[in-house]
Amino acid sequence: MCLGIPGEVLTLDVERPGMATVNVGGARRQVNVMLIEEDGVAPGDWVLIHVGFALAKIDEEEAQVTLSYLEEMGQAYRDELHALSESRID
Amino acid sequence: MGPGGMRFVDEYRDREKAQALAANIATLVEPGRRYGLMEICGGHTHTIYKHGIEDYLPEEVQLVHGPGCPVCVIPMGRVDDAIWIAEQEGVIMTSFGDLLRVPGARGSFLDAKARGADIQMVYSPLDSLRIARNNPDRRVVFMAIGFETTTPSTAMTVLRAAAEGLENFSVFCNHVTIIPALEAILASPDLHIDGFIGPGHVSTVIGCEPYRFIAEKYGRPFVVAGFEPLDILQAIQMLLLQLRDGRSEVENQYTRVVPWEGNQKALQAIDEVMEPRPTFEWRGLGWIPDSAMRIREKYARFDAERVFDVPAIRVADPPACQCGEVLRGMIKPWECKVFGTACTPETPIGTCMVSSEGACAAYYNFGRFTRLRVRQAGSA
Q1: What's phi and psi for B106, nearest 5 deg?
Q2: What would the pLDDT profile of B75-131 be if each residue is shown by its tens digit?
Q3: Which residues in chain B are contacts of A34 at CB distance < 8 A?
Q4: Which domains are present in chain B?
Q5: Between chains, do A50 and B123 touch, taking CB under 8 Å as contact?
Q6: B360 three-class SS
Q7: N or C: chain A end with fewer CB closer than 10 Å?
Q8: Which residues of B touch A65 (CB under 8 A)?
């Protein structure tokens, strides 16, 4: 719940404004991007995702740093990724 | 190297850099003076134990683990209330996985599920919304917990439910706010905290400005920090520099993620849907004014506390459990009477042992052989 997971924006959902398809840990997931400020997000951007919502834009290097931190968390990160893989946000 | 100047993964793991920082930290410490530095966020606690950060610090610097693990501060009564809701006719209770094992007086969500309650784990409140849509004849409740990191998501979900006109979805709102909790800790007379390592993700939402009173009213330096070992060492260095120079300011070590002004859209969403409660109970800290959020009257039909006749159960913490003293930084996890014996991650008595970010669980899993070993060697 408290883990911010980095994801790379693949496409913006045209039919549902504010939603984007994001690559998170190798899986494609729907994420709400309405809380990203200013210009919003574009394909190729990296975002930090909390419980289905992107809360901050980050650069790719920061995303890699965060991913390696998460991988070292072990079970807590695996649980979060598992919950995310079961998630069907629409 | 300035704050936010470090870039690549390897740089954050570089042992030489850590040792260089540690050497500099040692020069900033006045021998014999005690420096109590509180890391507020459970994520930081996790990093500190996992990477043995305390081993890089002089004995004068004591890290104190704060109340920033939302699972750890939820009082048993709220868990019991949630279970009561879950056991009402036609209810599907939805919850983050983190909370499933947290004990109330009548057991945990998992125990209630075993008794027949329909309790489902979700990753996002938006998942609860989907469950509500797919089960129009059921009443779906989202057990909302967390600091400002998760509060915007709950608020956005309520706005979405309102836009869709969903009538079978509500939120049992347990969101807490970090600032009043910090003020309660600072106002406590028996506490010796000289500076704060500020939370990374919460600050992404609220920004750095709300911490200013800590520097100005209470004269304590405050540095918002990232989650890598070197981030934390650098934040400690920045705190000790301020203390050496007699300054107390709010600084941001985590500029690569945290904007000074926070996330205004997220704050607006919270403010639209929620308002502060007059008071809220925190495990170990007691009742703190304005320290939690509730759903505004305007969105009353999405507020489980209005939809259901919630009993508002009050339960004292188990007498053997010293989570309260751990959360206020008065004792270390291993100083608790039941730590590692009656209370373990498998059979937790207190919430600090449940969450992987709780101070006790983090210490149990990673830290018990560092300072503890030093302490034992010293007393042998």
Answers
A1: -105, 35
A2: 999 999 999 999 999 999 999 998 998 989 889 999 999 999 999 999 999 999 999
A3: 156, 265
A4: 31-72+179-261+317-374 (3.40.50.11750), 76-176+292-307 (3.40.50.11740)
A5: no
A6: helix
A7: C
A8: 8-9, 12, 228
